[in-house]
Amino acid sequence: VDDVRTWVSSYAPRISRISPSEIRERMKLVGDRAMIQLGVGLPDPSVVPYELLREASAAIFGDREQAAASMQYGPSEGYGPLREWLVEYMRSLGVECSTHNIMIVSGSQQAFDFLGKLFIAAGDTVMVQTPSFIGALRAFDSYEPRYLMLPDDSGAWESLDKARAKFCYTSPDFRNPTGTCMSVGDRHKLLALARRSGMLVIEDACYEKLRYDGATIPSVLALDIGASGDIERGRVCYTNTFSKTISPSLRVGWVVAPSELIQKLTLIKQASDLASSTFNQMLALHVASTYLLSPMQAMKRTYTERRDAMLDALRKHMPDSVTWTEPAGGLYVWLQLPPSMDGAEFALRALRDHSVSIISGQSFFPVAPDRATARLSFSLATPDEIGVGVARLAQLVRQMISPA
Ligand SMILES: Cc1ncc(COP(=O)(O)O)c(C=O)c1O
Q: What pLDDT score does 296 carry?
């Protein structure tokens, strides 16, 4: 009898690098009311600007021309008026560019896939901060790179000059998963390293707008343009998204880069999905133009309260052998557990025995995982739930470090 499943052995080798994500698994539990959600970094439904979205769709469908355009294919580089608006928005962030430097993507995740496709041949070296956003690592994985770690201590960067990395992926503002920021001095040093070693810098600015305390730090892109005088002579590819500020369901993100790079990425987009949803880009434009230039106070108030509740609860309940980051923005706190603890077992037992969903830290490392780590998110749970959840986690740490 023929084995009809012989095609299973025909998968391309690159697919063996792709494994299921713990975050996607935790996502399935988001509707479960018995579970305290400290795992996924989804925007809280209470901060989504529903009224503005309703007004925006009424305005689009109330105008014949706009309605017709909204239901059509659009240009691969993105909806013109949104790109024009983004030129002004980027100017407000200190970045001088034109529409030739801007492309719309179906979420910044799509940009990471396209950049992997454009730059990585199997075995090429790419540099990443570790730990790093799992989604970007998964996107790069399918192009079979070798990973080189960009250590947090910039004093060690000099030795990376000859690394011949194709690019360095960095998330300088409130990095997922650590919540930490790269200092302005280190941003300059990273650009200097990129210049010396001839690589591109991919700057993932996903959480740029979600700063709760302290002064804004200029983007790596803005610093690069400041040094070269012109984005066309730069070496930064900047990505951003409306996912955390409006809604991830729009799947609208954008890339800002020298026009040569935008043209290549546009060709890849044509071959991939032709164009992002025109309707969603129109919605994003309507909402962003009334909302994104405002201080987004309601959203920031909600997340600041939750961040503070998490830090207070950690201080109150955790044993001294656990340390954590104190983020000034973003959605995450990173736990460093006692070295004897395994973060994967911690996350599993938290879920199974204590109804608290968290993410173990190891999958955020492309190489040399630190197993005694975990990521907590404060975006979805209320301050009271956060207090209860952290108390339960602290109880579990005590059980795991000194089992009865
Ligand atoms: C650092 C980082 N970059 C990018 C993304 C993905 O964003 P998008 O929804 O635009 O694909 C996320 C989502 O969690 C993220 O944490």
A: 79
In this predicted structure, what is the pLDDT of residue 73?
96
pLDDT for residue 297 is more than 90: no
Report which of 89, 76, 375, 42 is spatially closest to residue 238, judged by C-alpha positions: 89
CA 265 to chain centre: 19
Q: Which atom of ligand 1 is nearest to the CA of 109?
A: 11
DSSP H helical ranges for 10-131: 22-27, 50-61, 64-70, 80-92, 108-119
pLDDT in tens, 236-283: 999 999 999 999 999 999 999 999 999 999 999 999 999 999 999 999
0.90 exceeded by the pTM?
yes
CA distance 79 to 277: 9
Peptide bond between residue 248 and the one before it cis (omega within 30 degrees of 0): no
Contact at 8 Å (CB) between 207 and 43? no
What separation in Å is there between the alpha carbon of 384 and the centre of ligand 1? 27
Q: Which are the contacts of 25, defined by CB distance < 8 A and separation ≥ 6?
A: none
Number of H helices, E strands in the chain: 13, 13
Q: Which atom of ligand 1 is nearest to the CA of 248?
A: 9
Residue 318's φ and ψ, nearest 5 degrees, are: -75, 140
